[in-house]
Amino acid sequence: MLNDVHVHRSDDPLARADELAAKLAAVALDPVAVDADVVDMIVNRVIDNAAVSAASLGRAPVAAARAQAAARRQAPDDRRGGAGRSGAAGRGREGATVVGLDPAIRVQPEWAAWANGVAVRELDFHDTFLAAEYSHPGDNIPPVLAVAQHVGATGEQLVRGLAAGYELQIDLVSAISLHAHKIDHVAHLGPSAAGGIGALLGLDAETTAQAIAQALHTTTATRQSRKGLISTWKAYAPAFAGKQAVEAVDRALRGQTSPSPIYEGEDGVIAWLLDGPDAHYRVPLPGPGESKRAILASYTKEHSAEYQAQAWIDLARRLGREHPELRDPAAIGSIVLHTSHHTHVVIGSGAGDPQKYDPTASRETLDHSIPYIVAVALQDGEWHHERSYAPERAARPDTVALWRRITTAEDPEWTRRYHSIDPAEKAFGGRIEVEFADGRRLVDEISVADAHPLGARPFGREDYVRKFRTLAAGVLADDEIERFLDTAARLPDLRAGELQGLTLAAPPGSLRAADDALPDGLF
């Protein structure tokens, strides 16, 4: 069902139930059963998040967030019964686990959401949905799971919360562009995570709507975090949104109210941050009694890079094998990637960022440089979350020479397909045109990544499990790998208290080097 969303002047008040925040709350709280295939995909994405978290445990941003969370322990005397309006009455406040730490260590849930959110996002390697805006809807999992652990929820309750979080974020992303106004995409995550927590806890509609509005108000920021020389904050921004969502729910539970209407107000988000006072958005939301199935429209990553690079990596790997001369910069006159506007201006030469061609650039910058990614995938025939970004790999002279022969160009047809609402037509790739130094020419194209649901090798449960085993190997003990996979497979049936098992414990002492390398903070 499409919902018309537009600005209302203060002298033309909007009925509370007609505010988008209230409509999002109604969708989140609708008690419709979660479909079996949606439950199955939720399990897949929990495994996927754990996989990329394991691979990132030794990285500095993750270690820093983990240290901050560890300083916010949930003390035993704080584990009190009586959760008030949270829907978890009679169960203690147990705190939540942090990936990498001993599961016996429990921290305050907003800080678990923070630390685990950074671990999930650090390698840019989990699920994605691209439409009017772009997103990583798996970012909903850390905050919803942290609250679920804290209140002693069941697997069934967690599934309901995650289905709602995915639904709200994907529906917002389908209709409302943030990047067109240089607003970071996590502004859709704060509301979705708050709605997911509301669904998990079984809150009332007004409390959930207040939390959604607060979460939006506190998570709107510019997208400079994904521009130029990209900093470590790139991984923190979604975690911050998840943390804000947890805190917004807490405030709303305590009776605190929010700016209203947050989207449609005369001085609200649409009027001043987005398309302005005359804008109209058509936001698709399930009607009462309709299943929340949006998660099935999203897709995960086989490669650790920006999603719009996924198909290009697959094409480059194949072309490098079929045409080895593509690996030699001396043989290449130019390579032009004809692609969508979004790919061209965000990760292509259309961004105007010289850093995208700088061999000393940060990892975060390189994973947003499609010229770099195509050059390395052509030469190596693979894409690896560590080897492909190593400083010595980026600085290799033949790679730099090839890299600087690669540019992007916007193609209206690929832009149209990028924004198509027809799943069979929607595309995230493009056409490669190679001009060889000897005058020969090569043209090829790819529409979607091999792992995409319509790709050459769509991801299924066995692929998610293999991704987890691959990324966890050498990081986690073998018995910990098997324990987690067994727990995740039983997620829908986990009893109260068993959700604490949805974490990863690193071998004792294995993270000491990463932790000790950090300078001290305030706490």
Report a brief summary of the structure:
The chain has 523 residues and is α+β, with helices and mostly antiparallel strands. 42% of the residues lie in helices and 8% in strands. The chain has two domains: 2-272 and 291-297, Orthogonal Bundle (2-methylcitrate dehydratase PrpD), CATH 1.10.4100.10; 307-446, 2-methylcitrate dehydratase PrpD (60s Ribosomal Protein L30, Chain: A, 2-Layer Sandwich).
Protein described:
This protein is an alpha+beta fold and 523 residues long. It has 2 domains: 2-272 and 291-297, Orthogonal Bundle (2-methylcitrate dehydratase PrpD); 307-446, 2-methylcitrate dehydratase PrpD (60s Ribosomal Protein L30, Chain: A, 2-Layer Sandwich), CATH 3.30.1330. 42% of the residues lie in helices and 8% in strands. The strands form 3 sheets. Strands 6-5-7-8 form a 4-stranded mixed β-sheet. Strands 1-4 form a two-stranded antiparallel sheet. The chain has a two-stranded antiparallel ribbon with strand order 2-3. Helix 1 packs across helix 7 (189-201) and helix 5 runs parallel beside helix 7 (189-201). Mean pLDDT is 95; it is low at 79-90.
